[in-house]
């Protein structure tokens, strides 16, 4: 096995083993699976009921929430799961093995990414086929946007778990990390209608770009340059936060 000055090169088998362990752990936790799959779908169905008498309002916000809800649920799940592994010492034992941080991060991302794909498929299928959400763009781009937002939620969950001393504390980060992004993302008020200071701040919040992607798909049949810009920024932000989360992984927890 070859080595570099920084340690052992990233290994596909180690990455796949980590992803398998994440999926196996989730498969034995039905409450977490329920949180990831059923809760976003249930909330979207509830929203459809709330806007039953004003269907245009559901069309306005339904696509945006199809991306926001997976981000929120993946943030909760990833922050709890990774904090659990930190607290139990599993993370420390893994890093004591011949495994680089990149292997571990890639494994987490792949494992949760598979779940994000399933989650995005469930939410977008529900919205488009059963709740009557209409978009001009291709359905698969809405699915891609939902999955991308879920990966953003994963990266944020990984990052904040480093600053939590317990699973409960990990949950407490959600209002401070996600709610401001939700409020300024354009779901409640178009971003160009926000006060100047808040509108400027929204440009630095990655969830805004997920909402912008959904808005582009609502109105444009073709892939617009704005959509390509927004989805690129969303992925770049997720990768930057993942890198920051990797920096918080340490071989000794104490």
Model description:
This protein is mainly alpha-helical and 254 residues long. Helices cover 75% and strands 2% of the residues. The chain has a two-stranded antiparallel ribbon with strand order 1-2. A hairpin with a 2-residue loop joins strand 1 (3-4) and strand 2 (7-8). Helix 2 (30-50) runs antiparallel to helix 3 (55-88), helix 3 (55-88) packs antiparallel against helix 5 and helix 3 runs parallel beside helix 6 (139-161). The longest helix is centred in the first third of the chain and has 34 residues, at 55-88. 41% of the residues are buried. Mean pLDDT is 87; it is low at 1-8.
Helix and strand topology:
Elements: E1 3-4, E2 7-8, H1 12-27, H2 30-50, H3 55-88, H4 90-96, H5 101-130, H6 139-161, H7 167-177, H8 179-184, H9 196-202, H10 207-219, H11 225-247
Antiparallel strand pairs: 1-2
Helicity range:
over 70%
Poorly predicted sequence stretches spanning 5 or more consecutive residues? 1-8
How many domains? The number is: 1
Question: What structural class do you assign from the helix and strand content?
Answer: mainly alpha
Strand order of the largest sheet: 1-2
- Sheet with the most strands, sense and barrel status: 2 strands, antiparallel
Mean pLDDT: 87
Helix count equals 11
Helix and strand succession?
A: EEHHHHHHHHHHH
Q: What integer value in Å does the Rg equal?
A: 19 Å
Through-space gap between termini: 30 Å
Shape descriptor: globular
Strand content: under 5%
Total beta-strand segments: 2
């Amino acid at each position: 096995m070859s080595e570099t000055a920084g340690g052992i090169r990233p290994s596909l088998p180690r990455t796949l083993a980590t992803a398998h362990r994440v999926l196996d752990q989730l498969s034995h936790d039905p409450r977490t699976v329920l949180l990831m799959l059923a809760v976003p779908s249930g909330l979207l169905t509830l929203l459809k009921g709330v806007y039953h008498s004003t269907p245009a309002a559901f069309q306005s916000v339904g696509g945006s929430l199809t991306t926001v809800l997976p981000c929120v649920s993946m943030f909760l799940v990833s922050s709890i799961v990774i904090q659990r592994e930190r607290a139990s010492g599993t993370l420390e034992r893994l890093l004591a093995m011949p495994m680089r941080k990149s292997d571990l991060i890639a494994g987490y991302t792949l494992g949760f990414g598979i779940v994000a794909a399933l989650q995005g498929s469930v939410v977008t299928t529900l919205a488009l086929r059963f709740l009557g959400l209409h978009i001009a763009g291709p359905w698969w781009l809405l699915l891609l946007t939902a999955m991308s937002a879920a990966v953003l939620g994963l990266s944020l969950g990984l990052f904040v778990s480093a600053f939590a001393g317990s699973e409960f504390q990990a949950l407490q980060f959600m209002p401070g990390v996600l709610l401001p992004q939700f409020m300024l993302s354009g779901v409640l008020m178009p971003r160009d209608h926000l006060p100047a200071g808040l509108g400027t701040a929204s440009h630095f919040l990655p969830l805004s770009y997920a909402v912008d992607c959904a808005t582009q798909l609502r109105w444009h049949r073709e892939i617009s340059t704005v959509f390509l810009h927004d989805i690129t920024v969303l992925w770049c932000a997720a990768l930057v936060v993942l890198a920051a989360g990797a920096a918080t992984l340490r071989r000794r927890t104490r």
